[in-house]
């Protein structure tokens, strides 16, 4: 498994505002959207391209274009939806498939309550978007699901990851195939409720304005 922690002052700046507890939902959504654009630039570095012959106003030349089969972007509902527009802005020809997954806050087990993906992902490059990698259980299930459908490789684009979750993920799927995780930051640890520390709280609640 490859881990890419994106080091960029703009990422750090936006992440700091994102973490602040007083940041309202509207600003939080905007920042997630901006951050995913910066992360997607790194995440798509190895996207498949092919040569194409074109004519400029001056000469014939050979350029590059995204190769078939088209990549697929998979947001993990709910929080991953906040990252979808940023990804498809950069990859407008990508397909989009949906996974709805919720972790039980007590047992930390994952319930997959929605699955709207093509049956066959043979040869497809998959970009899973979910802002939080905490215990890693959600992404393990998502990656296994996509690889079992034939995906060529899986790149997870996350905003924050916990070291414990990265280790668990590596142990669970690191051997399987091409798995890459791109994150804005690897935080310090998980707390007793499996929340990322210092983190940003519950990403879904903050994106969608749910206050307990
Ligand atoms: O690494 P894990 O310990 O599995 O936790 C990470 C998951 O938790 C959050 O989703 P949540 O289950 O809160 O669902 P939501 O997006 O509907 O809020 C987050 O968006 C990830 O999907
Ligand atoms: O810190 C965390 C951990 C899991 N899910 C979140 O939204 N935040
Ligand atoms: Mg949540």
UniProtKB/TrEMBL annotation:
Tell me a Gene Ontology molecular-function term this record carries.
uracil phosphoribosyltransferase activity
Pathway annotation: Pyrimidine metabolism; UMP biosynthesis via salvage pathway; UMP from uracil: step 1/1
What does the record give as EC number? Answer: 2.4.2.9
What does this protein's record comment on cofactor binding?
Answer: Binds 1 Mg(2+) ion per subunit. The magnesium is bound as Mg-PRPP.
Q: In what residue span(s) does the Phosphoribosyltransferase domain sit?
A: 7-209
Q: Which residues bind 5-phospho-alpha-D-ribose 1-diphosphate?
A: 78, 103, 130-138, 202
Catalytic activity, reaction form:
UMP + diphosphate = 5-phospho-alpha-D-ribose 1-diphosphate + uracil
Q: Does the keyword ATP-binding apply?
A: no
Q: Which domain of life is it from?
A: Bacteria
Role? Catalyzes the conversion of uracil and 5-phospho-alpha-D-ribose 1-diphosphate (PRPP) to UMP and diphosphate.
Name of protein: Uracil phosphoribosyltransferase
Protein's organism: Boudabousia liubingyangii
Q: Which gene encodes it?
A: upp
């Amino acid at each position: 498994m490859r881990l890419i922690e994106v080091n960029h002052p703009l990422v750090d700046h936006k992440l700091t505002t994102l973490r602040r507890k007083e940041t309202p939902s509207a600003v939080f959504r905007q920042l997630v959207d901006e951050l995913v654009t910066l992360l997607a630039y790194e995440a798509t570095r190895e996207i498949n391209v092919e040569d194409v012959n074109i004519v400029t106003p001056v000469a014939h030349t050979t350029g590059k274009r995204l190769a078939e089969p088209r990549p697929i972007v998979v947001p993990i509902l709910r929080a991953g939806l906040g990252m979808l527009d940023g990804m498809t802005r950069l990859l407008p020809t990508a397909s989009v498939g949906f996974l709805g997954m919720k972790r039980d806050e007590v047992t930390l087990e994952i319930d997959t309550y929605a699955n709207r993906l093509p049956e066959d992902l043979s040869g497809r490059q998959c970009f899973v978007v979910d802002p939080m990698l905490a215990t890693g259980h959600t992404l393990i299930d998502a990656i296994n699901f996509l690889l079992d459908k034939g995906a060529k490789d899986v790149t997870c684009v996350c905003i924050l990851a916990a070291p414990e979750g990265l280790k668990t993920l590596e142990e669970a799927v690191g051997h399987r195939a091409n798995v890459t995780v791109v994150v804005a930051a690897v935080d310090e640890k998980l707390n007793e409720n499996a929340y990322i520390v210092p983190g940003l709280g519950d990403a879904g609640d903050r994106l969608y304005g749910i206050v307990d």
